[in-house]
TrEMBL record:
<protein>
    <recommendedName>
        <fullName>Protein kinase domain-containing protein</fullName>
    </recommendedName>
</protein>
<comment type="function">
    <text>CIPK serine-threonine protein kinases interact with CBL proteins. Binding of a CBL protein to the regulatory NAF domain of CIPK protein lead to the activation of the kinase in a calcium-dependent manner.</text>
</comment>
<keyword id="KW-0723">Serine/threonine-protein kinase</keyword>
<comment type="similarity">
    <text>Belongs to the protein kinase superfamily. CAMK Ser/Thr protein kinase family. SNF1 subfamily.</text>
</comment>
<dbReference type="InterPro" id="IPR000719">
    <property type="entry name" value="Prot_kinase_dom"/>
</dbReference>
<dbReference type="InterPro" id="IPR008271">
    <property type="entry name" value="Ser/Thr_kinase_AS"/>
</dbReference>
<keyword id="KW-0067">ATP-binding</keyword>
<feature type="binding site">
    <location>
        <position position="38"/>
    </location>
    <ligand>
        <name>ATP</name>
    </ligand>
</feature>
<keyword id="KW-0677">Repeat</keyword>
<dbReference type="InterPro" id="IPR017441">
    <property type="entry name" value="Protein_kinase_ATP_BS"/>
</dbReference>
<keyword id="KW-0547">Nucleotide-binding</keyword>
<dbReference type="GO" id="GO:0004674">
    <property type="term" value="F:protein serine/threonine kinase activity"/>
</dbReference>
<dbReference type="InterPro" id="IPR011009">
    <property type="entry name" value="Kinase-like_dom_sf"/>
</dbReference>
<feature type="domain" description="Protein kinase">
    <location>
        <begin position="9"/>
        <end position="267"/>
    </location>
</feature>
<keyword id="KW-0418">Kinase</keyword>
<dbReference type="Pfam" id="PF00069">
    <property type="entry name" value="Pkinase"/>
</dbReference>
<dbReference type="InterPro" id="IPR050205">
    <property type="entry name" value="CDPK_Ser/Thr_kinases"/>
</dbReference>
């Protein structure tokens, strides 16, 4: 860990604020290079040293020689906070892109979901389950490359075994086995990516509600995913098939990240659907 963030970096504008701290732009005093710094306040009431060090560990493990994961460059700590020096992702995250864009064309969504699943697959090859895949944790680097961020809920898993446990992540994107309190495997990340794909194409969630409790109940209820015409007037059968297999309620049937990439060639060479001739909303 570094000794003094203030000596090495100049703090810039606020980029975002979360439950455990805030993210700012910062500039290296020695090189002039721009970075982001996540400042985790030790006096916020939510500070847990074990969780902070777990996030650092899993971010480093996921990011090593992996171009699709946000990199930690340095870590500082003083009596008030922990400072994580991260890649600067200047553009809006995927959530803000969805809000500002409206429903994506299938070709656009296919390109983004391919990058996301490639990032997830690389984590899984390293035995890491992210467990909080959602648009707010999907960032974009200065070159436009999709980067997976925020490994605060990540965990190591044993391949081929449902050894993970704990209700973590964000309910709207969490797999039913997570919300039910069951043991589960890394395919919970594929479920979450399927929800992201559904949201990009339809501008709505597959299992929705007016409150967190209603969303949890809808996910756990067991109804098959559907594609209402008011939200999906132009969706192709290929896209429906892919989402249905990513949102399979039985983890044994649900696709793995590798299967999404290998089996479904349509996600690599996206089909240009009728939707691509319709003006964006």
């Amino acid at each position: 860990m570094g000794e003094s963030f203030d000596l090495d970096y100049s703090l810039g504008e606020l980029l975002g604020r979360g439950q455990f701290g805030a993210v700012y732009q910062c500039v290296s005093v020695s090189t002039g290079q721009d970075f982001a710094v996540k400042i985790i306040d030790k006096f916020s009431g939510c500070f847990d040293r074990r969780l902070v060090y777990s996030e650092i560990k899993f971010t480093l493990l996921a990011a090593f020689e992996n171009p699709r994961s946000v990199q930690i460059h340095q870590v500082y700590e003083d009596i008030t906070a922990v400072y994580l020096i991260l890649d600067l992702c200047p553009g809006p995250d995927l959530f803000d892109r969805i809000v500002g864009h409206g429903p994506f064309f299938e070709s656009e969504a296919a390109a983004l979901i391919t990058e996301l699943v490639e990032s997830i697959a690389e984590c899984h090859r390293r035995g890491i389950a992210h467990r909080d895949i959602k648009p707010e944790n999907i960032l974009f680097g200065s070159n436009g490359r999709l980067l997976l961020a925020d490994f605060g809920c990540a965990a190591v898993f044993e391949k081929g075994a449902r050894t993970l446990k704990g209700k973590v992540g964000t309910p709207a994107y969490a797999a039913p086995e997570v919300l039910a309190g069951q043991n589960y495997d890394e395919k919970v990340d594929v479920w979450s990516a399927g929800v992201v794909l559904y949201l990009m194409l339809g501008w709505t969630l597959p299992f929705n509600g007016e409150s967190v409790e209603e969303i949890v109940a809808a996910v756990k209820k067991g109804d098959p995913v559907c594609f209402p015409k008011e939200f999906f007037p132009w969706i192709s059968r290929e896209a429906e098939d892919l989402i249905e297999q990513m949102l399979a309620r039985d983890p044994a049937v649900r696709l793995s990240a590798e299967q999404v990439l290998i089996t479904h060639s349509s996600i690599r060479s996206p089909r240009i659907s009728v939707a691509d001739s319709i003006p964006q909303k």
